[in-house]
Design a protein that fits this description.
Shape: globular
Low-confidence stretches: none
Radius of gyration: 15 Å
Distance between the termini: 48 Å
Helix content: 25-40%
Structural class: alpha+beta
Bound molecules: zinc ion
Strand order of the largest sheet: 2-1-6-5
Length: 125
């Protein structure tokens, strides 16, 4: 990918983030969300990175979009929003699962990553 394309992509991501809004806009009943994420190489490769995402009502909702660690991945990534949405709808306090990069099906798994997540949600009432 040439630099101009990379920059355009970066800019698009920044704009998406700015337009995304806050956690409290999307899920007003949520006090906090903690997500433990483990990124893996490929679909079931070794661990690439582990991290914890902490969100409060004025956190950007775009924190729920995680980037794919695959070197050649452009438009892929992981959107945890539907998973959080489902938990909130059912007023559940936690949920776990695995995901593969959204772009994987188009380009083949070897260039993309997968992750496992463990979500904990606290509610205002
Ligand atoms: Zn990917």
């Amino acid at each position: 990918m040439i630099n101009a394309e990379k920059n355009a992509h970066k800019l698009a991501l920044i704009q998406k983030k700015q337009l995304a809004g806050l956690l409290s806009d999307r899920f007003p009943q949520v006090l906090s969300i903690t997500i433990n994420v483990v990124h893996y190489y490929g679909e079931s490769g070794p661990v690439y990175m582990e991290r914890t995402i902490n969100m409060v009502p004025n956190s950007n909702i775009y924190l729920l979009h995680l980037q794919c660690s695959g070197g050649r991945c452009v438009n892929g990534g992981f959107d945890l929003t539907p998973r959080v949405e489902e938990l909130v709808r059912n007023h559940k306090k936690s949920g776990k699962g695995k995901m593969v990069c959204a772009e994987k099906d188009e380009a083949g798994a070897s260039n993309h990553a997968s992750l496992s997540y463990d979500i904990s949600i606290k509610y205002l009432h």
